[in-house]
Amino acid sequence: SVGAVSVGVIDYVANISGSTNAYVTGANRTSAAGKIDILATDVSTASPNITQVSVGLLTVGTINVTPTISRTTQAYVGDNALLTAANHDIYIKAYTVSTLTNNISQVSVGAVTIGVLNMGGTISANTLAYVAKGADVAGKNVTVEADATPYLEANVDQVSVSLVNVGAMSVKNNLQGSVEAYTDENAVVTATNLTVDAEMHVAANRQHSVFTDLFYVGVGLGVDVATATSEANISTSVKAFVGPRDNATLAPGDQAIAVADTLTIRALATEIAEAKLTGGSGSLIANGNNFTPKAAITGNVEAYVGSNAQLNARNLNVTTEKADAKTR
Fold it and tell me: How many of the other CB atoms lie within 10 Å of CB of 276?
Protein backbone atom coordinates (compact mmCIF):
# COMPACT_ATOMS: atom_id res chain seq x y z
CA SER A 1 0.00 0.00 0.00
CA VAL A 2 1.44 3.34 -1.09
CA GLY A 3 0.22 6.86 -0.19
CA ALA A 4 0.82 10.38 -1.53
CA VAL A 5 4.43 10.18 -2.78
CA SER A 6 6.53 10.16 -5.93
CA VAL A 7 8.20 6.80 -6.63
CA GLY A 8 10.50 5.75 -9.47
CA VAL A 9 10.02 1.96 -9.36
CA ILE A 10 8.02 -0.39 -7.14
CA ASP A 11 9.24 -4.01 -7.39
CA TYR A 12 7.67 -7.18 -6.05
CA VAL A 13 10.56 -9.65 -6.43
CA ALA A 14 10.76 -13.46 -6.36
CA ASN A 15 13.72 -14.95 -8.25
CA ILE A 16 15.18 -18.47 -8.36
CA SER A 17 18.52 -19.00 -10.10
CA GLY A 18 21.49 -21.38 -10.10
CA SER A 19 22.23 -24.88 -11.39
CA THR A 20 21.92 -28.61 -10.64
CA ASN A 21 24.64 -30.91 -12.02
CA ALA A 22 25.44 -34.62 -12.05
CA TYR A 23 28.58 -35.66 -13.90
CA VAL A 24 31.69 -37.71 -14.38
CA THR A 25 34.57 -35.29 -14.76
CA GLY A 26 36.78 -35.12 -17.80
CA ALA A 27 39.74 -37.54 -18.03
CA ASN A 28 38.11 -39.72 -15.33
CA ARG A 29 38.33 -43.53 -15.68
CA THR A 30 35.26 -45.26 -14.24
CA SER A 31 34.26 -48.91 -14.51
CA ALA A 32 31.25 -50.54 -12.84
CA ALA A 33 30.19 -54.18 -12.49
CA GLY A 34 26.53 -53.12 -12.64
CA LYS A 35 24.41 -50.34 -14.11
CA ILE A 36 25.44 -46.68 -14.01
CA ASP A 37 23.00 -43.82 -13.42
CA ILE A 38 24.02 -40.18 -13.79
CA LEU A 39 20.89 -38.26 -12.86
CA ALA A 40 20.36 -34.53 -12.35
CA THR A 41 16.87 -33.59 -11.15
CA ASP A 42 15.81 -30.01 -10.53
CA VAL A 43 12.39 -29.03 -9.19
CA SER A 44 11.90 -25.27 -8.83
CA THR A 45 8.69 -23.61 -7.69
CA ALA A 46 7.96 -19.91 -7.28
CA SER A 47 4.52 -18.80 -6.13
CA PRO A 48 4.62 -15.10 -5.26
CA ASN A 49 0.88 -14.72 -4.77
CA ILE A 50 -0.08 -11.14 -3.95
CA THR A 51 -3.46 -10.56 -2.36
CA GLN A 52 -3.60 -6.80 -2.93
CA VAL A 53 -1.65 -3.95 -4.49
CA SER A 54 -3.13 -0.62 -3.39
CA VAL A 55 -1.80 2.72 -4.62
CA GLY A 56 -3.06 6.19 -3.61
CA LEU A 57 -2.08 9.74 -4.65
CA LEU A 58 1.30 9.45 -6.32
CA THR A 59 3.43 9.44 -9.43
CA VAL A 60 5.08 6.10 -10.20
CA GLY A 61 7.49 5.43 -13.05
CA THR A 62 7.07 1.65 -13.05
CA ILE A 63 5.35 -1.03 -10.95
CA ASN A 64 6.84 -4.52 -11.51
CA VAL A 65 5.33 -7.78 -10.29
CA THR A 66 7.54 -10.04 -12.42
CA PRO A 67 9.10 -13.10 -10.71
CA THR A 68 11.62 -15.31 -12.55
CA ILE A 69 13.03 -18.83 -12.53
CA SER A 70 16.42 -19.07 -14.22
CA ARG A 71 18.03 -22.51 -13.80
CA THR A 72 20.45 -24.84 -15.59
CA THR A 73 20.29 -28.61 -15.09
CA GLN A 74 23.02 -30.86 -16.49
CA ALA A 75 23.86 -34.57 -16.50
CA TYR A 76 26.97 -35.45 -18.46
CA VAL A 77 30.14 -37.41 -19.02
CA GLY A 78 32.97 -34.89 -19.31
CA ASP A 79 35.61 -34.37 -21.99
CA ASN A 80 37.82 -37.43 -22.59
CA ALA A 81 36.29 -39.40 -19.70
CA LEU A 82 36.06 -43.19 -19.87
CA LEU A 83 32.86 -44.81 -18.51
CA THR A 84 32.29 -48.56 -18.74
CA ALA A 85 29.45 -50.71 -17.41
CA ALA A 86 30.31 -53.99 -19.16
CA ASN A 87 27.00 -55.66 -20.07
CA HIS A 88 24.85 -53.32 -18.00
CA ASP A 89 22.85 -50.20 -18.79
CA ILE A 90 24.04 -46.62 -18.54
CA TYR A 91 21.51 -43.86 -17.94
CA ILE A 92 22.48 -40.18 -18.28
CA LYS A 93 19.47 -37.98 -17.57
CA ALA A 94 18.72 -34.34 -16.78
CA TYR A 95 15.17 -33.71 -15.59
CA THR A 96 13.65 -30.32 -14.85
CA VAL A 97 10.28 -29.29 -13.43
CA SER A 98 9.84 -25.50 -13.29
CA THR A 99 6.60 -24.08 -11.91
CA LEU A 100 5.88 -20.39 -11.57
CA THR A 101 2.42 -19.19 -10.56
CA ASN A 102 1.99 -15.46 -10.15
CA ASN A 103 -1.50 -14.71 -8.89
CA ILE A 104 -2.66 -11.22 -7.97
CA SER A 105 -6.13 -11.02 -6.51
CA GLN A 106 -6.59 -7.25 -6.69
CA VAL A 107 -4.78 -4.19 -7.98
CA SER A 108 -6.44 -0.97 -6.83
CA VAL A 109 -5.12 2.33 -8.13
CA GLY A 110 -6.38 5.80 -7.15
CA ALA A 111 -5.47 9.27 -8.46
CA VAL A 112 -2.14 8.29 -9.97
CA THR A 113 0.18 8.73 -12.92
CA ILE A 114 1.91 5.43 -13.77
CA GLY A 115 4.36 5.01 -16.62
CA VAL A 116 4.22 1.21 -16.79
CA LEU A 117 2.35 -1.40 -14.77
CA ASN A 118 4.04 -4.78 -15.42
CA MET A 119 2.75 -8.12 -14.18
CA GLY A 120 3.64 -11.66 -15.22
CA GLY A 121 6.73 -13.87 -15.00
CA THR A 122 9.59 -15.57 -16.81
CA ILE A 123 10.94 -19.11 -16.81
CA SER A 124 14.35 -19.41 -18.46
CA ALA A 125 15.51 -22.99 -17.99
CA ASN A 126 18.20 -24.99 -19.76
CA THR A 127 18.16 -28.79 -19.44
CA LEU A 128 21.16 -30.67 -20.86
CA ALA A 129 22.21 -34.34 -21.00
CA TYR A 130 25.30 -35.20 -22.99
CA VAL A 131 28.48 -37.14 -23.63
CA ALA A 132 31.19 -34.53 -24.11
CA LYS A 133 33.96 -34.29 -26.71
CA GLY A 134 36.32 -37.25 -26.77
CA ALA A 135 34.52 -39.19 -24.03
CA ASP A 136 34.26 -42.99 -24.32
CA VAL A 137 31.13 -44.71 -22.98
CA ALA A 138 30.47 -48.45 -23.17
CA GLY A 139 27.41 -50.33 -21.90
CA LYS A 140 24.50 -52.51 -22.95
CA ASN A 141 21.69 -49.99 -23.38
CA VAL A 142 22.91 -46.40 -23.19
CA THR A 143 20.37 -43.59 -22.75
CA VAL A 144 21.15 -39.88 -22.92
CA GLU A 145 17.96 -38.00 -22.05
CA ALA A 146 16.99 -34.40 -21.30
CA ASP A 147 13.43 -33.82 -20.16
CA ALA A 148 11.73 -30.56 -19.13
CA THR A 149 8.24 -29.86 -17.81
CA PRO A 150 7.63 -26.13 -17.34
CA TYR A 151 4.47 -24.40 -16.20
CA LEU A 152 4.03 -20.63 -16.08
CA GLU A 153 0.83 -18.91 -15.00
CA ALA A 154 -0.17 -15.34 -14.19
CA ASN A 155 -3.69 -14.50 -13.09
CA VAL A 156 -4.82 -10.99 -12.27
CA ASP A 157 -8.33 -11.29 -10.90
CA GLN A 158 -9.17 -7.60 -10.89
CA VAL A 159 -7.55 -4.32 -11.82
CA SER A 160 -9.54 -1.36 -10.58
CA VAL A 161 -8.48 2.09 -11.72
CA SER A 162 -10.03 5.50 -11.02
CA LEU A 163 -8.50 8.93 -11.83
CA VAL A 164 -5.37 7.71 -13.53
CA ASN A 165 -2.94 8.16 -16.38
CA VAL A 166 -1.33 4.80 -17.23
CA GLY A 167 1.17 4.51 -20.06
CA ALA A 168 0.97 0.71 -20.35
CA MET A 169 -0.65 -2.05 -18.32
CA SER A 170 0.49 -5.58 -19.11
CA VAL A 171 0.50 -9.16 -17.93
CA LYS A 172 3.27 -10.91 -19.85
CA ASN A 173 4.49 -14.46 -19.34
CA ASN A 174 7.63 -15.66 -21.11
CA LEU A 175 8.88 -19.24 -21.31
CA GLN A 176 12.44 -19.46 -22.64
CA GLY A 177 15.38 -21.83 -22.67
CA SER A 178 16.56 -25.07 -24.22
CA VAL A 179 16.34 -28.84 -23.84
CA GLU A 180 19.27 -30.73 -25.37
CA ALA A 181 20.47 -34.33 -25.46
CA TYR A 182 23.57 -35.17 -27.47
CA THR A 183 26.84 -37.02 -27.90
CA ASP A 184 29.40 -34.42 -28.92
CA GLU A 185 31.96 -34.66 -31.72
CA ASN A 186 34.53 -37.46 -31.36
CA ALA A 187 32.59 -38.97 -28.47
CA VAL A 188 32.61 -42.77 -28.67
CA VAL A 189 29.67 -44.88 -27.52
CA THR A 190 29.67 -48.67 -27.76
CA ALA A 191 26.28 -50.23 -26.98
CA THR A 192 23.59 -52.67 -28.02
CA ASN A 193 21.13 -49.76 -28.17
CA LEU A 194 21.77 -46.03 -27.91
CA THR A 195 18.97 -43.52 -27.31
CA VAL A 196 19.55 -39.76 -27.46
CA ASP A 197 16.30 -38.10 -26.46
CA ALA A 198 15.26 -34.46 -25.79
CA GLU A 199 11.69 -33.75 -24.70
CA MET A 200 9.58 -30.85 -23.44
CA HIS A 201 6.14 -31.62 -22.03
CA VAL A 202 3.04 -30.01 -20.62
CA ALA A 203 2.65 -31.13 -17.00
CA ALA A 204 0.23 -34.00 -16.55
CA ASN A 205 -2.10 -31.99 -14.30
CA ARG A 206 -2.04 -28.81 -16.44
CA GLN A 207 -3.75 -27.70 -19.63
CA HIS A 208 -1.04 -25.22 -20.69
CA SER A 209 2.67 -24.56 -20.75
CA VAL A 210 1.99 -20.85 -20.36
CA PHE A 211 -1.28 -19.26 -19.28
CA THR A 212 -1.92 -15.54 -18.88
CA ASP A 213 -5.20 -14.07 -17.72
CA LEU A 214 -5.99 -10.40 -17.13
CA PHE A 215 -9.46 -11.24 -15.93
CA TYR A 216 -11.13 -7.91 -15.29
CA VAL A 217 -10.18 -4.34 -15.99
CA GLY A 218 -12.45 -1.76 -14.39
CA VAL A 219 -11.85 1.92 -15.10
CA GLY A 220 -13.40 5.01 -13.55
CA LEU A 221 -13.78 8.56 -14.81
CA GLY A 222 -10.99 10.69 -16.25
CA VAL A 223 -8.75 7.75 -17.14
CA ASP A 224 -6.17 7.77 -19.91
CA VAL A 225 -4.60 4.37 -20.63
CA ALA A 226 -2.46 3.79 -23.72
CA THR A 227 -2.33 -0.02 -23.78
CA ALA A 228 -3.44 -3.08 -21.84
CA THR A 229 -1.85 -6.36 -22.89
CA SER A 230 -2.17 -9.99 -21.91
CA GLU A 231 0.62 -12.09 -23.45
CA ALA A 232 1.70 -15.74 -23.31
CA ASN A 233 5.01 -16.26 -25.13
CA ILE A 234 7.02 -19.44 -25.66
CA SER A 235 10.47 -19.29 -27.28
CA THR A 236 12.37 -22.54 -26.74
CA SER A 237 14.81 -24.88 -28.46
CA VAL A 238 14.59 -28.67 -28.25
CA LYS A 239 17.49 -30.59 -29.83
CA ALA A 240 18.76 -34.16 -29.98
CA PHE A 241 21.87 -34.88 -32.03
CA VAL A 242 24.95 -37.02 -32.50
CA GLY A 243 28.19 -35.39 -33.57
CA PRO A 244 29.03 -31.69 -33.85
CA ARG A 245 26.35 -29.17 -32.99
CA ASP A 246 27.17 -27.12 -36.09
CA ASN A 247 30.43 -27.26 -38.01
CA ALA A 248 33.05 -29.75 -36.85
CA THR A 249 35.89 -28.27 -34.81
CA LEU A 250 37.93 -31.48 -34.49
CA ALA A 251 39.36 -33.91 -37.03
CA PRO A 252 37.43 -37.21 -37.08
CA GLY A 253 38.65 -39.63 -34.41
CA ASP A 254 39.86 -43.18 -34.89
CA GLN A 255 36.73 -44.76 -33.40
CA ALA A 256 33.07 -44.53 -34.33
CA ILE A 257 29.83 -44.80 -32.40
CA ALA A 258 29.12 -48.54 -32.57
CA VAL A 259 25.54 -49.69 -31.93
CA ALA A 260 24.83 -53.36 -32.45
CA ASP A 261 21.08 -52.87 -32.79
CA THR A 262 19.27 -49.47 -32.82
CA LEU A 263 20.44 -45.88 -32.57
CA THR A 264 17.52 -43.55 -31.82
CA ILE A 265 17.78 -39.75 -32.00
CA ARG A 266 14.53 -38.07 -30.98
CA ALA A 267 13.33 -34.54 -30.23
CA LEU A 268 9.79 -33.93 -28.99
CA ALA A 269 8.04 -30.76 -27.86
CA THR A 270 4.49 -30.23 -26.68
CA GLU A 271 3.77 -26.56 -25.97
CA ILE A 272 0.47 -24.79 -25.29
CA ALA A 273 0.12 -21.04 -24.78
CA GLU A 274 -3.08 -19.17 -23.93
CA ALA A 275 -3.66 -15.49 -23.25
CA LYS A 276 -6.94 -13.94 -22.06
CA LEU A 277 -8.00 -10.37 -21.49
CA THR A 278 -11.53 -9.84 -20.25
CA GLY A 279 -13.02 -6.44 -19.44
CA GLY A 280 -16.15 -5.51 -17.56
CA SER A 281 -18.45 -2.52 -17.72
CA GLY A 282 -16.57 0.74 -18.28
CA SER A 283 -13.37 -1.22 -18.85
CA LEU A 284 -10.19 -0.37 -20.63
CA ILE A 285 -11.40 -2.25 -23.66
CA ALA A 286 -14.06 0.42 -24.16
CA ASN A 287 -11.83 3.41 -23.43
CA GLY A 288 -8.29 2.59 -24.52
CA ASN A 289 -6.28 2.44 -27.67
CA ASN A 290 -4.73 -1.02 -27.89
CA PHE A 291 -6.08 -3.88 -25.78
CA THR A 292 -5.30 -7.26 -27.28
CA PRO A 293 -4.45 -10.70 -25.87
CA LYS A 294 -1.46 -12.30 -27.60
CA ALA A 295 -0.18 -15.88 -27.63
CA ALA A 296 2.97 -16.79 -29.54
CA ILE A 297 5.13 -19.91 -29.90
CA THR A 298 8.52 -19.78 -31.61
CA GLY A 299 11.70 -21.87 -31.58
CA ASN A 300 13.05 -25.07 -33.12
CA VAL A 301 12.67 -28.79 -32.58
CA GLU A 302 15.56 -30.65 -34.19
CA ALA A 303 16.97 -34.17 -34.35
CA TYR A 304 20.01 -34.78 -36.53
CA VAL A 305 23.39 -36.36 -37.17
CA GLY A 306 26.09 -33.68 -37.28
CA SER A 307 28.83 -33.25 -39.86
CA ASN A 308 31.79 -35.68 -39.70
CA ALA A 309 29.96 -37.94 -37.24
CA GLN A 310 31.02 -41.58 -37.52
CA LEU A 311 28.25 -44.11 -36.92
CA ASN A 312 27.89 -47.86 -37.20
CA ALA A 313 24.39 -49.15 -36.37
CA ARG A 314 22.03 -51.83 -37.59
CA ASN A 315 19.06 -49.46 -37.35
CA LEU A 316 18.98 -45.67 -37.26
CA ASN A 317 15.87 -43.72 -36.25
CA VAL A 318 15.94 -39.89 -36.36
CA THR A 319 12.58 -38.32 -35.45
CA THR A 320 11.07 -34.99 -34.45
CA GLU A 321 7.61 -34.23 -33.11
CA LYS A 322 6.14 -30.85 -32.26
CA ALA A 323 2.63 -30.19 -31.02
CA ASP A 324 1.67 -26.51 -30.57
CA ALA A 325 -1.53 -24.83 -29.57
CA LYS A 326 -2.00 -21.11 -29.00
CA THR A 327 -5.24 -19.36 -28.16
CA ARG A 328 -6.23 -15.85 -27.22
Answer: 17
8-state DSSP, 81: -
Predicted local confidence at residue 109, as pLDDT:
56
- The sign of the CA dihedral 78, 80, 81, 87 is positive
- The pLDDT tens digits of the residues spanning 159-184 come to 555 545 555 677 889 999 999 999 99
How confident is the model at residue 316, as a pLDDT? 96
CA-to-CA distance for 37 and 131, rounded, in angstroms? Answer: 13
Helix or strand (DSSP H, E) at 285 = helix 284-287
Query: Considering the entire predicted model, what is its pTM?
Result: 0.85
Using an 8 Å Cβ cutoff, are 185 and 308 in contact? yes
The SS3 call for residue 284 is helix
- Tell me the helix, strand and coil percentages in the chain, rounded to 5: 0, 70, 30
CB burial readout 50-84, b (16+ within 10 A) else e: beebebeebebebbebbbbbbbbbbbbbbbbbbbb
CA-CA-CA-CA torsion sign (244, 184, 200, 316) = positive
CB 263 within 8 A of CB 317: yes
